[in-house]
Adenine phosphoribosyltransferase (Alteriqipengyuania lutimaris), 179 residues
Amino acid sequence: MLSAEQLRASIRTVPDFPKPGIQFRDITTLLSNPAALRTSVAMLAEQVQASGATLVAGMEARGFIFGAAVAIEADLGFVPIRKPGKLPIETIGVDYALEYGSDRLELDPGAIPADAKVALVDDLIATGGTALAATQLVRLAGADVAAAHFVVDLPDLGGARRLRDAGVEVSTLLAFEGE
């Protein structure tokens, strides 16, 4: 297993993307590094198991990568939380605000048992809009959000705090503060 510093070093920083002054944290380099990917999945799976979750859910798209792998490692099922129009069945959905507009997440309500304790898993928590929408969807399906787990936290953007304020336990592997 890699150390936290080695894991951190596996994430590429792209300056001035998507606009000047932004330090974009690109996990492509983590995903292409087998030791970094294995370490992050194992660490997230430990956190998911400690949360008492009975099911893992990941938000499209990078949450599918980490969520499915974490579910396998934790010996739990996985439920995808989708972008609109991706499922050929009736879904429940939540609209949420983005910095420049809005988006929507949808879920097959039959994919989550009402008594499930769901662990949300994604690559990064920034402002928290997507994670809060996913939390609302899981709750609309009648289940409980056991916790939310992320590889990276950008604490200056306040997403983890917003999730905690919504009653969700949050854990992250790494934080990139004010950089």
